[in-house]
Each structure stands twice: as structure tokens, then as C-alpha cells.
Specification:
Elements lengths: L2 H15 L14 H10 L6 H14 L2 E2 L6 E2 L9 E3 L5 E3 L3 H10 L2 H9 L3 H9 L10 E3 L12 E3 L5
Antiparallel strand pairs: 1-2, 3-6, 4-5
């Protein structure tokens, strides 16, 4: 028989002989590894703090990244006001705003569409993430609300995973 099972049997026999179901054991050790191994082998109950810490670790491991705000989140903390969506998928750079105005006055719809493709949120996020953008992320603003690139959108919503 393995020692943990033999130990458990001795405890059970003691409990039956004395007519009790609860057994109290005090273990004192300055050796953390030895204490941990003992607890694991006899299925020592975990404290509430240990259980809560395990739950936090488990949630941290299951976190996802939001496509809207690029924050990490877990489904447990996700609610209808946790994030915000933008009502537009276009961004602009203040430095190029004047050239865009001139483009609208003179260009054909096809030229305007081609020029604006580089300001779609997908293109901007890819360029900023790949450090290929002409401008730093802080220069981009959402066309719908004039907020920064990584700011929460104006329409309340849940986080959405990538």
C-alpha cells in the first residue's frame, strides 16, 4: 500500500473507533516543498484565499483580447458596458486633414475611395502594430467621435474577442 492511502486508512480507523467524522491535524514545517507535497498527498483542503487565487489565475489564462479596444478581458467580467464600439471604421490624421478636404473638392469618387482605404481601421491597426505607419498611434483619431485610436468607442457594448 502507498503511504498516503495507509495514512488515510489509519485516520479513518481512528475516526470510526472514536465515533467522530472530523479529524484535526496540525502540521508544522519550515520546508515549503515538504508541506506542499504532504497537502497534495492527503488531499488537504485549500483555504478560501487559495481557491480565489486559483480562480484568478484560471481567468487570467482564459483572457482574450478585444477587437474594439485591444484590452484583455475574461468572459466573467464582460458585460454590456465593458467596452464601446465605434460607429465608423474610418480614422484620420490631423496632419492630413487639409489634404483630405482638398481631395474631396477635386477628386472623383474612385480616387477618394482609394485614398481613404489607407484610413480604414484594419489598415491602420496593421500598420501601427507592424511599426510601418507614417504617424504614431497617438496621431490617429476616429472619424465618428474624434477619440484616439485605442480609446473606447461611443456606443456601449461587450468586449469581442479576436
Amino acid at each position: 500500500k502507498s503511504r498516503p492511502r495507509a495514512f488515510q486508512q489509519v485516520l479513518n480507523q481512528f475516526a470510526e473507533a472514536n465515533g467522530c467524522n472530523d479529524i484535526w491535524i496540525v502540521a508544522i514545517s519550515g520546508h515549503d516543498l515538504l508541506t506542499q507535497q504532504f497537502k497534495e498527498r492527503v488531499n488537504w483542503p485549500k483555504t478560501r484565499a487559495q481557491l480565489e487565487a486559483e480562480q484568478v489565475d484560471k481567468e487570467r489564462k482564459t483572457q482574450a483580447e478585444c477587437v474594439n479596444c485591444h484590452c484583455s478581458f475574461s468572459e466573467a467580467e464582460n458585460n454590456n458596458n465593458a467596452c464601446g464600439e465605434h460607429t465608423s471604421n474610418m480614422l484620420y490624421v490631423q496632419a492630413e486633414l487639409e489634404s483630405l478636404r482638398k481631395l474631396y473638392e477635386k477628386a472623383s469618387p474612385e480616387e477618394i475611395f482609394k485614398k481613404l482605404q489607407k484610413y480604414s481601421s484594419a489598415t491602420v491597426f496593421n500598420e501601427v502594430a507592424g511599426k510601418r505607419s507614417k504617424y504614431p498611434a497617438s496621431q490617429y483619431k476616429w472619424l465618428c467621435c474624434d477619440r484616439g485610436l485605442f480609446d473606447k468607442g461611443e456606443k456601449p457594448s461587450k468586449h469581442k474577442s479576436i
